[in-house]
Write a structure and sequence with these properties.
The chain is α+β, with helices and mostly antiparallel strands. It has two domains: 3-90; 106-354, BirA Bifunctional Protein, domain 2 (2-Layer Sandwich). Helix content is 40%, strand content 21%. The strands form three sheets. A seven-stranded mixed sheet has the order 2-6-7-11-10-9-8, with helices on both faces. Strands 3-5-4 form a three-stranded antiparallel sheet. A hairpin with a 2-residue loop joins strand 8 and strand 9. Helix 1 (3-18) packs parallel to helix 4 (51-90) and helix 2 (22-33) runs antiparallel to helix 4 (51-90). Bound molecules: 3,4-dihydroxyphenylalanine. 3,4-dihydroxyphenylalanine is lined by residues 176, 178, 217, 256, 259, 286-288, 309-311.
């Protein structure tokens, strides 16, 4: 290879070494091998040489071209892999970052109310019982002394399902948590002290009713249970739950097929402002002494055992306690609503702090 070609190969190597990105690299490539690049010009000049020199010079230029092309490709690969490394390290995700950088999860107000109820009734020695959402007619109605002609049995209020495996008896989406009273009495010997928080279903849908909602049932059975126990238990619960020690509570005579006597329970409330404790009354739950027929239906001798029961809507007391005006967003899974009304998972219910 002649001096000028050796010099060109060396100059190209030096230039390539200083190119730090593909743009600079391409400029060098074009400057040597492009249409009017320095090596291309030498090729063009071949034509002016006498034939005997042309052959040797042509072979030398081609060797120079091979060397330069190889250097250019090597540099290109190096620059491309450096660019990829830079991109990868720029996009790296640090999986060791602490999760608290994400917004923390929140407890839904319905769950929070259930936890508070479990804590308050738990402190009274009452435990939690559960039952299935799909019930049979007897447990949801019959055993509870709800007669065949009662309006609650009508298709309008109740979601019915066909019987299972050829059984002609239709099943129901439980319309209240009261069938768990029946289940508990059939499987536990008295004394019994349970609450039953859970889902219930009715064919009803507007601003204050949802086809799925939550109730909590209460059942206490022992010897010598009186209305006084019922009243004391519910007054204590309501004052504790709403955090107002002087909350007015009124018991008003009423009717339920499964209790005798039966009472609605009202709390003091201001009709105009919605504030608790005020001079008007707001109905909040149903209660009564367990009907002797219900005890007998569930295999408990009413001459030996007495009991009281109650049932209340969880959404209703939650809305009242926290001033939540609309029922529908409870089930819409809107994260903005939950951020506003939800509770920190790190702040568990603690009775000594007041709930
Ligand atoms: N099950 C009734 C309802 O859904 C509520 C209720 C009232 C439950 C009185 C009771 C009770 O246990 O004693 O409307």
């Amino acid at each position: 290879m002649s001096d000028d070609l050796l010099a060109l190969v060396a100059a190209t190597d030096t230039a390539l070494a200083t190119a730090t990105d593909l743009r600079a690299w391409d400029a060098i490539r074009v400057g040597v091998l492009g249409k009017s690049g320095s090596l291309t010009e030498k090729l063009k000049a071949l034509g002016a040489l006498p034939p005997d020199q042309r052959r040797e010079r042509g072979a030398a230029i081609n060797r120079a071209k091979d060397a330069i092309t190889a250097a250019i490709e090597t540099r290109k690969a190096a620059l491309e892999s450096a660019a990829l490394d830079a991109k990868l390290s720029g996009e790296r995700i640090d999986v060791t970052l602490p999760p608290l950088l994400a917004p923390p999860g929140l407890i839904h107000p319905i769950s929070r109310t259930m936890e508070e109820m479990a804590a308050i009734f738990g402190a009274m020695g009452i435990s939690i019982a559960e039952g299935p959402d799909i019930e049979d007619d007897w447990r949801n109605f019959g055993a509870l002394n709800i007669p065949a002609h009662h309006s609650a049995r009508e298709d309008m209020d109740t979601f019915y399902l066909p019987g299972l495996n050829g059984d002609a008896r239709r099943r129901v989406m439980r319309t209240h948590t009261s069938p768990v009273q029946v289940r508990t009495m059939l499987t536990q010997a008295p004394p019994i002290r349970v609450i039953v928080p859970g889902r219930t279903y009715r064919a009803d849908h507007d601003a204050t009713h949802s086809p799925m909602f939550h109730q909590v049932e209460g059942l206490v059975i022992d010897r010598g249970i009186t209305l006084g126990h019922l009243k004391g238990c519910l007054i204590d619960f309501l004052r504790e739950f709403f955090g107002i020690s002087s909350l007015p509570v009124r018991f008003r005579s009423s009717y339920f097929p499964f209790t005798e006597p039966s009472m609605e329970v009202d709390i003091g409330w201001n009709r105009r402002t919605g504030e608790l404790g005020g001079g008007d009354w707001l109905e909040i739950l149903g209660s009564g002494m367990v009907h002797p027929k219900v005890l007998a239906n569930c295999g408990i001798d009413p001459r030996e055992w007495q009991g009281f029961a109650f049932g209340m809507g969880i959404e209703r007391v939650t809305m009242l306690k926290h001033g939540i005006p609309d029922l529908r967003p409870f089930y819409e899974s809107d994260i903005r609503w939950l951020r506003h009304y939800g509770f920190s998972a790190l702040a568990p219910v603690a009775l000594h702090e007041g709930v």
